[in-house]
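Design a sequence for this backbone.
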């Protein structure tokens, strides 16, 4: 049993409405990096969703397989591409296995945090390693927790304030649990409120999880344009490599 929130049919039906996620400025650099890392091999996407990244990567000539927890999200994907071209297994990304080895396993858009226990997050890294061919890469895109912005006693940090959407995160600094709160304008007059839950992870903690999985660090950037990652970066794209020996840590 996974601790992840489960995207239902209503959520899946409007997931693609966020046009910013699908813009060329966002997807172009993302797909460029992933296609380069995949090389002549195949890619496996954890939490593939409706195929926002997988479909354009597939269009670039990279064979893609997916693991996705939500059947309604897969149903939306199937309106874009059939199972013969982009196979997907419904299951959680911490434990679900698919056949074959891959030159690239990737997990984008902060989705690692959907696993709300440290044990599951460690298991996710190990599951990625089990699917990697020697020399293959595991890539994650993840935000850096915004708790540096909070004065003592504050528990919430806004991440977007606009006429169409207001969002803020609340943090429990003891458990590393958090909740994203979304107020989205629906028809110009009313708002829809929704939440998603997560466990936040620091970049250094990700490196330790990778080490436990037998992976070695390869790169860390602030974003998909490969800008330098600094102490002030609000997010990171991190890459680890399976050693050519192919030894995976199961400890």
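Sequence:
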């Amino acid at each position: 049993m996974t601790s992840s929130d489960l995207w239902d049919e209503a959520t899946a039906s409007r997931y693609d409405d966020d046009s910013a996620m699908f813009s060329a400025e966002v997807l172009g650099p993302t797909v460029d990096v992933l296609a380069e890392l995949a090389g002549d091999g195949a890619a496996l996407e954890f939490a593939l969703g409706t195929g926002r990244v997988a479909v354009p990567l597939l269009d670039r000539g990279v064979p893609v397989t997916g693991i996705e927890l939500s059947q309604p999200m897969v149903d939306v994907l199937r309106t874009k591409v059939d199972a013969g071209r982009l196979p997907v297994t419904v299951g959680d990304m911490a434990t679900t296995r698919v056949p074959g080895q891959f030159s690239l396993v990737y997990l984008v858009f902060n989705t690692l945090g959907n696993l709300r226990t440290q044990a599951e997050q460690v298991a996710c890294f190990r599951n990625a390693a089990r699917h990697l061919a020697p020399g293959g890469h595991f890539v994650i895109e993840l935000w850096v927790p915004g708790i540096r912005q909070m004065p003592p006693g504050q528990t919430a940090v806004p991440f977007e304030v606009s006429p169409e959407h207001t969002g803020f995160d609340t943090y429990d600094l003891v458990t590393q649990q958090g909740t994203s709160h979304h107020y989205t304008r629906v028809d110009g007059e009313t708002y829809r409120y929704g939440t998603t839950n997560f466990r936040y992870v620091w970049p250094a903690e990700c490196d330790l999880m990778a080490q436990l999985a037998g992976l070695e660090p390869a790169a860390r950037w602030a974003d998909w344009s490969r800008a330098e990652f600094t102490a002030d970066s609000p997010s990171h794209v991190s890459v680890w490599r399976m050693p050519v020996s192919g030894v995976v840590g199961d400890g």
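DSSP finds six helices and eleven strands in the chain.
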